[in-house]
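Annotated sample (chain length 349).
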Amino acid sequence: MTDTTMDRDLYILLIYKELKGEISEEESHTLTEWLDADPEHLEIERNIRLDWQLSGNYEPNIKLDLEEEFSFLQSRIEADEQSVPKEEAKVVGIDNKKKSGNTGKWLALAASIALFIAAGFWVFNNSMPKENWEYMATAENETKSVVLPDGTEVILNENSRLDYPDKFLGDSRQIELKGEAFFDVVRNVSQPFKIISPTMETTVLGTSFNLEDYPEKDEALLSVFTGKVKFGRKENPEGALILEEGENAFFVKSKDELFKMGKSHINANAWYTQVLTFKNRPLPEVIDDLAHHFDVTIGLHESLVNCRFNSVYKNPDLERILVNLSSIYKAEWKKTNEGRYTIGEGSCN
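Output written by the structure step:
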C-alpha cells in the first residue's frame, strides 16, 4: 500500500495514542507493521518521541478524542470516494492529475487534523536541538549488546527495544527502553543517566542494574547490583524509591503499587549470564526464579514450601532442574500443559 500523506497522518495518530498508553492491541500491531516497513517511518517515530520527552509529555487542557477524530476522517474520505464518478474513480491513486478536487481536500484535512493533534499533544520548538537517534531491537530468543556514546554498556534481552542518541547533550543522558536490559552505567555526576520505559522513569549516576518493563506485562522490576538508583512512575515522580546495592523494586501496574524488597535478586540477570544460583534459598523462591527465567508456570505442593535449596546451574535446562529437584525432595514432577508444570508431594528430609 502506497504511503500517502493521508496514510502517514493516520499512523502519526497511532504513535500519539501509544505515547499516552491508549493504543489497542490491534492498533499496536498495525503500527508495528508500519514502523518495520520503512526506516523512514522509524525516524518519524523517534522524532515524535524525542519532542514528546523534551516538552515534558505536554498535554493541553483541550482533550481530543483520538478515536472520534480517526473514525471521522476515515468516514469522510470513504463518503467522498463514493461520490466520485465511476470512470473517474478508476484512476484515483494512479494518476494524481485526475484525482477529484474533493479527495485532495480530504488529504489536506488529514494533514490538518494530524497537525492539530500534534500541536495539542506536544510543544514543537524549532530552537530545541534534535539529536540523531539510533535504536537496537531483539526478536524472541535473541539478545544483543551495545556500548552507548558515554561508554555505558547495555545488554538487551529478547523482544526488547532500546532507543538512544548518537551523543548525549544537555544536563542528562536520556534513553528509552521497552522490555528488559542490563545496564553498566559510566559514572557522571554532572550528567545523570535516565531511562524512560513504558511505565517507569529510572535515574542513576553510575551503577549496574537490571531493568524490566515490558508494555504487555503487569510488573516492572528493577534489581540493583552496584551503586544507587532512583526508580519511580513516570506519572508520579514524587513517589520514586531510592535503591542501593542488593535491593529490588517492583511496580504492579494493575494496582498502581510500587514497593521495595531489601534483598538481593541474584538471578535477575540470569537471562544473559546463563547461570542460575541458589544459595540456601527457600524452595518457593527457587520456583519463582525458575518460572520467571523460563517464562512458565510451576505449581509446588504445600508439603515442600518450607524446604531450602542450594545449587548452581550453568546453561540451565528446566526439565533437568525439575528432575534434580524431584530426586532431592522425593517428589514427582509433570508437565500438565504447554508452559505449565507441577511438583507433587514430597519431603524436605
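Annotation: Residues 5-121 form one domain.
Annotation: The CA atoms of residues 9 and 114 lie 6 Å apart.
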